[in-house]
Amino acid sequence: MTETENIYTADVVALTPGGDVLLIERGWPPFQGAWALPGGHVDAGEAPFVAAARELAEETGVHVPVGNLHQIGVWDQVGRDPRGAYVTFAYMVIVPDGTVATAGDDARTARWWPLSDLPEQLAFDHADIISAAVTTNS
User: Fold this and answer.
1) Is 2 a member of any domain?
2) Cα dihedral across residues 120, 77, 69, 56: positive or negative
3) How many CA atoms does the CB half-sphere of 63 hold within 13 Å?
4) Is residue 53 part of a domain?
């Protein structure tokens, strides 16, 4: 990879009507052990919204139709990821209260957090992404 190549990822803010957000505990660097949104790399030839639904299912066991995902923005700030020039497409989806989440793939843990009591520090710029999703949803 050269310095000018971007790497594309997709992240999902899964919210419940009751005011919870689904987070994973990262099982790998960077930010190993920190809480983050479910998400990951967009595969070659894959649309970002398809990658978002795939990563949500792989990391949390929560399956949603791609048509239920709503793009809330693209985060591409320089330095947002210590690995390099990562650009993420962020999506929001509303799922029913009581939706079961089970950690899978690269996630150590998957759990619902009340929006009013999030972990003190989230990985990457995920606090900003959650804030944008909540603003979009209100």
Assistant:
1) no
2) negative
3) 0
4) yes
The SS3 call for residue 110 is: strand
CA pair distance 117, 81, nearest whole angstrom: 24
Q: How far is CA 135 from the centre of its chain?
A: 16
The string over 92-129, giving b where at least 16 C-beta atoms fall within 10 Å of a residue's C-beta and e elsewhere, is bbebeeebebebebebeebbbbeeeeeeeebbbbbbeb
Q: Which residues contact 125 (CB under 8 A, 6 or more apart)?
A: 75, 77, 80
Q: Specify the pTM.
A: 0.94
What is the tally of structural domains in the chain? Answer: 1
pLDDT digits (tens, 9 = 90+) for 45-59: 999 999 999 999 999
Considering only the C-alpha atoms of the chain, give the largest distance between any 2 of them, rounded to a whole number of Å: 44
Whole-angstrom distance, CA of residue 130 vs CA of residue 21? 8
Q: Is residue 1 part of a domain?
A: no
Residue-wise pLDDT tens digits, 10-32: 999 999 999 999 999 999 999 99
Domain that holds residue 90: 7-137
In a domain, 39, yes or no: yes
